[in-house]
Design a protein that fits this description.
TIM Barrel, alpha/beta, 3-stranded antiparallel beta sheet, 4-stranded parallel beta sheet, 15% strand
């Protein structure tokens, strides 16, 4: 979906549909998450979030958003969405009370909708399930409401450091990414791969080795091997790890901040 990290573009639905169809042959999800950038900027977001459930790939869907576009979202979006993860940025001047009021209005209209996560202490009352979900996976929770994790590292980690980051990170067991026919065990691998290609830079590590080609004849075997592996990913060499990263106040990135992650 639309993202400040990348040149303006929208995901193609037919490509997304093809990937979902293929992945459903090997794997089932509890929830398909849609993020960006800002997922709600996609003009066909409702069609995207419906599809994984329609084919039985996912039981639920979740949209991660800053909330602005919720104010103008059409009924087909509210009918389709299950979980809303609202990221609150204090440095933008956004009227979040207006957004909360809209969400409350729509939850009354569509009772199946739930607020899944909120990144602000004052609205913890709207938080449901996130911390419990992390702890249920046996991870050491480093969670401070009102902050984001500083995942990207500007220094390269040693193999020992990368393995420690991997071992403690809960994302490796529950947060995957699918893009243009590839299944990534960690979304950081996908983001790094795309960023280096976009900037025409040589990749310091083979981030694509953290992925499986879903259309390979040995896709099932390769996917099982990737998911069951205990070895660190190439992305871990340039990541601080979710459970070992420092917290920083949430804010929307500027272009110069984005360049710094390479």
């Amino acid at each position: 979906m639309a993202s400040p990290y990348f040149q303006p573009s929208y995901s193609d639905f037919e490509t997304f549909k093809r990937d979902c169809d293929k992945l459903s042959e090997f794997y089932k999800l509890y929830a398909a998450r849609f993020t960006g950038g800002e997922a709600l900027l996609h003009p066909d977001i409702a069609k995207f979030i419906r599809y994984p459930k329609e084919i039985g790939l996912a039981e639920k869907n979740c949209v991660i958003t800053n909330g602005i576009s919720l104010l103008s979202a059409k009924d087909d979006f509210w009918e389709a969405v299950d979980y809303i993860h609202l990221s609150v940025y204090d440095d933008t001047g956004i009227n979040y009370q207006k957004i909360f009021d809209k969400i409350d209005e729509k939850i009354n209209q569509y009772p199946h909708i739930e607020m899944l996560e909120v990144t602000k202490p004052e609205v913890i009352r709207k938080l449901a399930g996130y911390k419990a979900d992390v702890e249920s996976k046996g991870a050491e929770v480093n969670l401070t409401f009102g902050t984001f994790k500083k995942l990207y590292s500007t220094t390269v980690k040693s193999d020992e450091e990368a393995q420690n980051i991997y071992d403690k990170c809960w994302m490796k067991d529950s947060t995957f990414a699918v893009h243009e026919g590839k299944f990534y065990k960690c979304p950081i691998s996908l983001i790094k791969s795309k960023l280096y290609r976009q900037e025409n830079l040589s990749m310091p590590f083979d981030f694509d080795s953290d992925a499986v080609d879903l259309f390979d004849v040995n896709a099932q075997e390769n996917l099982d091997r990737l998911l069951n592996s205990t070895n660190f990913l190439q992305a871990c060499k340039t990541c601080n790890g979710y459970n070992t990263a420092i917290d920083e106040p949430q804010s929307q990135l500027k272009v110069i901040d984005i360049k710094d992650v390479l």
